[in-house]
Amino acid sequence: xxxxxxxxxxxxxxxxxxxxxxxxxxxxxxxxxxxxxxxxxxxxxxxxxxxxxxxxxxxxxxxxxxxxxxxxxxxxxxxxxxxxxxxxxxxxxxxxxxxxxxxxxxxxxxxxxxxxxxxxxxxxxxxxxxxxxxxxxxxxxxxxxxxxxxxxxxxxxxxxxxxxxxxxxxxxxxxxxxxxxxxxxxxxxxxxxxxxxxxxxxxxxxxxxxxxxxxxxxxxxxxxxxxxxxxxxxxxxxxxxxxxxxxxxxxxx
Length: 253
Ligand code: IPE
Ligand code: IPE
Ligand code: MG
Known about the structure:
six-stranded parallel beta sheet; alpha/beta; 6 strands; single chain; binds 3-methylbut-3-enyl trihydrogen diphosphate; Undecaprenyl pyrophosphate synthetase
């Protein structure tokens, strides 16, 4: 509306055909410990689950997949475990950079970079550059990520902005987490490993996300589990505050 004090902007919204699924990949450590293995073995098996899910996602109607790999609070873990995780991420990113031509997947990393080892930052930059033009699937990996911190940093930026819209805030959240675009709303959030909490993941983007919690430990998660979650998701009535469809035709309001 002309003259309205709040200027609605669609400038930064990239139209999306598919779903944005976010996964809190939890349970690697418990999966390993239950088998008498070191926690790092659980993380290694977790990378295989990532490969399976990334491979299966586009055929299931997903065009954006955000995976939580390392939270800002995970620095509290033993340095050996942190080192093992970073080593796996570095290997994964370099391998994906080298094999970029084989997959139409754009990989980007969201979170802070200033505390990561330089070799990991190099791997991140290599894979982002090698896959930047790919459009088949937008794969976002959250590393040293905290939703609260991202929102605080975005809010600081907004203080000098004249445009106070949700789209602008999403764009700022993308910017402060090094994402290539505005941070998109999540359609479905999956958490494996049996816990039912958000652990500071995508708090802004999940405002209207459907939530799916499963007991399955991440190393055992497969494409069929993703399919099940999506089947359940598609059966839900996403009302976004509206009355249920059945109530719309009811006589009394
Ligand atoms: C998820 O698995 C991966 C990371 C948090 C890095 P966990 O390592 O948290 O596994 P559990 O929850 O201890 O089993
Ligand atoms: C959340 O898992 C972070 C990742 C999956 C990377 P955590 O295992 O760190 O979460 P909490 O400690 O159970 O909340
Ligand atoms: Mg955990």
